Each structure stands twice: as structure tokens, then as C-alpha cells.
Amino acid sequence: MINKHSQKGLTTIGWLAVIGIFGLLVVSGFKVLPFYLDYFKLKSVMDGVVQDETVDARSKRDLLFALNKRLMINQVLDVKKEHFTFERKNNITTMTVEYEVRKPYLADLFIGAHFTYSVEIKR
Fold first, then answer.
1. Rounded to an integer, what distance in angstroms lies between the CA atom of residue 83 and that of residue 115?
2. What residues does 98 pair with on adjacent strands?
3. Consecutive 10-residue runs of the chain (123 residues): their mean pLDDT?
4. How many C-beta atoms lie closer than 10 Å to residue 101's C-beta?
5. C-alpha distances in angstroms, 99 versus 8, 39, 102, 114, 115?
6. Distance from C-alpha of 79 to C-alpha of 114, rounded to nearest angstrom
7. Among candidates 63, 94, 102, which has minimal Cα distance to 81?
8. What element of type H or E holds 41?
9. So where are the chain's domains?
């Protein structure tokens, strides 16, 4: 037996809940996207330093200067020189960056991410 008056679809409150959840996801995406864009810029900067033959891989000062110059050009502002570590072993320099980004989200909540990336310079 089929009831002609059975409900079909969502109520107004149901639609408001769906729109609210969708809106929260969109806002979260817009807050997180800049973190990852800066991270991918940072990765390309570090890979560029590895490929640059004019940079002395044995000199921490040279590496930091090349990184800082490229980070300023790409406007990566969340990464500082304190986030970089350098280790030299058997003519291989390992350059590692580890940093955390936190930004305000809603009211007293923060949204953040932790990033780590390493490259090896074999010279």
C-alpha cells in the first residue's frame, strides 16, 4: 500500500544543516589551501637550490643565502632560517626543513599543519 502523503526530500532544517556543513568544509578548504601552496613553493625552492651549481653545498651560509633569496621571491613568509637544518656526511649535504603553521580558524579555534621535507646535495 502506497501513501500519497509520504514525505519526499529534506525539510528546511535538514537543508540548513546540509548547507552549514558544506559551508564549513568550504571555509576549512580556503584556510588550509595557503599552507599547502607555500609548502609546494618551498619544495620547489629547495629543489632549485640542489640544482644550482653556483651554490657551495659545504657552506651553510651559502645555502641559507640562496634559500632566503628564493623564499623572498616566492613570498613564502612562514619559513625562517631557524627551521632549516644541515648535515654533511661523505660529501653529501642533507638539507631539511621542519616547520609548523597555525592560523586562526573560528573564534578561539586554530587550524594548523606540520611540514617536513629533506633534499640531498651530492657535491
1. 10
2. 116
3. 69 92 93 94 96 91 94 92 94 95 90 95 88
4. 17
5. 51, 10, 10, 6, 6
6. 12
7. 63
8. helix 12-51
9. 33-121
